[in-house]
User: What shape does this take?
Amino acid sequence: MEVAIMLKLAAEADGSVGTSAPVSLLDWFDFGTELILVQERPVPAVDLYDYIKENGGCLPEEKAKVILKQLVDAAKDLEEKHIFHRDIKSENILIETSSDVPRVRIIDFGLSCFAMERSRFRFFYGTAIHTPPECYRGKKYRPGPTTVWQMGVVLYEALHVGDFNTETFLQKELEFNKHLSSHCRNFLDACLTNVPKKRPTLGDLQLHPWLR
Assistant: This one.
């Protein structure tokens, strides 16, 4: 599935390497028992997890905004191509550091699948500690609300020291950086809403005042 998705992304990009947020597939080899993917390697770049650590364990709000705006746009583009990444997290986001403005690239489509807006899934494939709340209630999850939840998780980890854990989130109220702007706090609250139907869409997030 990963190859099929990356081939679709390459076709959409007209074969151009490095022009889209997802890293480009350069070649692939099927050896029967294993599949080898040759992918673009942006240089210089570091994953967002290490980028945050290198910046003292959390990012200034304005820097986080630059990253989240690109990430939301990239996630919306994947949604329009009917691609559900399933595991958007700081370790699967590369930050190109060759210019003053960090550039977002998305990697690791190993858990991704093709999905329509109304598709529903029973078994969660992704990072366990970031599982959306609806899965804990035994309900099926949908691509859009799950991806929005992951936007909130990425942003929370960018602005706070330490990892986000859904189980902890469900057991006690989250502690927020008291220096966040009201728009940023509203963006976080919206993404991390317990009820998936009450979360904004990716399109809504693009229009959110915090990203304007």
Summary: The chain has one domain: 43-211. Residues 61-80 form the longest helix (20 residues). Residues 43-211 form a domain with the Transferase(Phosphotransferase); domain 1 fold (CATH 1.10.510.10). The chain has a mean pLDDT of 96.
